[in-house]
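Hello again,

I reread your note about wanting to compare the complex against the isolated chains. To keep things tidy I'm splitting this into two emails, and this first one only covers the full assembly. Below are the input lines as submitted, including protein chains and any nucleic acid or small-molecule components. They are followed by the predicted structure of everything together. The single-chain runs will come separately.
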Amino acid sequence: MRRARLLGRGLGSLLGLLVAAYILAPFLWVAASSIQPEKELFRVPPRWIPRVLTADNYRFVFTGQFPAGYEETGIARGRISEKARDALPALRNSTMVAVSVAVTNLVLGTMAAYTFSRLRFRGAGSLYTFVLASRLLPPMAVAIPYYLIVNRLGLLDRYAALVLIHSVFTLPFSVWFLTLYFRRVPPDMEEAALVDGCTRLQALLRVVAPMTAPALAATAAFSFMFSYNDFPFALFVTSTIRSQTIPVIVANTAINPDVSFGVVAVTVVLTMLPPVAFAMIFRNYITRGLIAVTTTR
Amino acid sequence: MRLVALPRRRYREARYAYATVLPVVLLVALFTIYPLLFALITSLREVVLYRPWSQPFVGLKNYLDVVRSEFFASAWAHTLTFVVGAVPLATVLGFAIAHLLNGRSRLAAWLNVTILLPWAIPTVISGIIWAWIFNSSYGAFNGALYSLGLIDSYVPWLSRPRSALLCVLFAHVWKEVPLTSILYLAALQAIPDELYDAARVDGAGTLGILRRVTVPLLLPTTLIIVVYETMVGIVTFDLLYVMTGGGPAGATSLISYYLYNSMFVAYNFGQGAALAVLLAAALVVFILVYMRLLRSEEIYAT
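Full-complex prediction:
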């Protein structure tokens, strides 16, 4: 019996390590690639533990100084990799847009969800269904109309276009998620506040919001992630570095067959930093929020 | 006094209700109704880039052209292959990993942190990483096989039709597994311990508990996961764009890539819109089936 348990635990640890390797290997591979000169990366078979380390690739992305042994591969190539230098402004664009989307979801999503969970009014059911059902349109199908709407609003290549589109995509989920969550909160305390003369909005802000902080944090995290990760819409409604986001810049840099691998690895590493940090910070809220919703019946 | 105050309060509540709900509804409506109408109208006209001012009404011609095209059949065939591979893999792996995450060991806590990583990074970024791993001249996958002596020269995995789809599938599952395992973990943690204890008292072994307690209780979650993963699989685009560009020879041109191609490469907007309408309709049918299933499931559970 004890031996079986020990064996079970050993097997569990082994499987756990395998899963960790499966998840982490690609990250480690890119991180290792970003600190090696290009010549090392083309070695057959590859060196699993890098021997020649360099900060050249990072220096190039941050300062524009070409890595040694790079110019000899030709002018065209240098020009192509120049795009990687847009990574830093693109990171700023991405962060600005994603934070705005998260705030929009927190403000508009929370208010609407609270109303849907507490108040009865004409059309409540159909409006709720409409918001949720809107997500059934496949993204690729709405690309051109979205482009036309944004163009008509005069918002092409601006943050606002992306914030609008990403909010439209995230709000249905936020409203659904928060409505389920708010319904679980017993209405006693806010009713006391309402009797004391609070308005609905005040009750929401002072009583309900503090009590549901994990769900609000999860909502912010989900909408931030969606916005930061979006590629197709960012591709369609942005055109210059004024509003292009980091997935677009990295994809445009990387799909070029001539591009230097090490330099793109740097942009990939930089791209991963904000969402990974975000996921780490909000990890508990994300799982806790999901547990609360999946246990709602 | 009360008779007067009550309607006024109700009126105020209703006003508040619309004021808070309408911003979301209007925003969503603008970006839903207009695109829908646009797609429907465009799909009935001949709209091509080289004749922007002439958009004659052609009835269902675009639909017929699209459905008759050989790309339509092959794109759906590839999409189905992809979905049939991806959904069970993501579901079963998620289920298994959730059990590992559910442990109380230090390893489980650590896994809990790492598991979110593939989910957190943008899909195009994971596509780029996997495209490198499968790259024919410096990829880690080739490197590993070569080091192990399994191949004697590097294989261009992404330029062979069958392996290309498998590579994309692999990258897709890697990206999707975190979400499925987190959802399963949430559902697992919601199962009360008493149920396990009761089953154990009744003499059920590990497999018996899995079959009689865990699996039935996780059915609703499984249904959500299967449906969500199917939808995500059908509309996959980002990975294809950066990993294969729909190639080689269209082998990874799934339905939404075909749609992208009609619209933004061939610039045949009418056919693209027809395809979009068909894809939307397929998704709606799919969701209706799912809702039917879910409803019967709930009756079953109660």
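For quick reference: Residues 104 and 110 of chain B are 10 Å apart (CA to CA).

B.
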